[in-house]
Backbone:
């Protein structure tokens, strides 16, 4: 979905700082927001926002951060509980891949704190390309999905049944079908 530019956008790296081989290198979400929030149009033909239709503010964000720090204080940083939960909710076909590069537990609180300074609604209003919001039916971050669709009325909201926040790995076949739908839409309309 992203057209590869001749030169990477300044401040944007190929891997997110909280995943896989990049997890030990700090890049704040504010830095990424600055890179994509420039006045010039980023080299993106479409945008799929999976499991992220919440405004990260107030009590919700504070609670999420408190829980994350609580898990981090458990023996083995709560990995025994995390692994048991993921073993129950993820299909065998994706379980081994999920977290294969490790978990960026040290970056988690920094990333969550960084969310509070982003102006997501302003950024959302600047998106002029085809846009899809994809949420799991039981995703805790669905709380503002109607607001997101009002701010970006050209966006499509797709809710995947029987799925949580982990929509991409819980229902990979469905998610891949949605990616194909987006690609087909682009091929037919652009």
Residues:
């Amino acid at each position: 979905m992203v057209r590869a530019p001749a030169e990477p956008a300044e401040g944007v790296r190929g891997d997110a700082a909280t995943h896989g081989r990049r997890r030990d290198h700090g890049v704040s979400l504010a830095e990424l927001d600055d890179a994509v929030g420039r006045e010039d149009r980023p080299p993106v033909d479409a945008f799929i926002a999976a499991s992220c239709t919440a405004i990260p503010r107030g009590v919700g964000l504070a609670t999420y951060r408190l829980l994350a720090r609580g898990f981090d204080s458990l023996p083995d940083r709560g990995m025994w509980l995390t692994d048991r939960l993921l073993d129950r909710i993820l299909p065998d076909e994706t379980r081994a891949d999920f977290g294969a590069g490790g978990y960026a537990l040290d970056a988690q609180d920094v990333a969550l704190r960084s969310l509070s300074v982003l102006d997501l609604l302003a950024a959302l209003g600047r998106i002029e390309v085809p846009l899809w919001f994809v949420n799991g039916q039981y995703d805790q971050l669905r709380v503002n999905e109607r607001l997101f669709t009002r701010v970006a009325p050209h966006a499509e909201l797709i809710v995947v049944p029987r799925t949580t926040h982990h929509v991409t790995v819980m229902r990979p076949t469905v998610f891949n079908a949605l990616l194909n739908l987006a690609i087909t839409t682009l091929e037919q309309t652009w």
Summary: Residues 1-22 have pLDDT under 50 and may be disordered. Residues 105 and 185 are 37 Å apart (CA to CA).
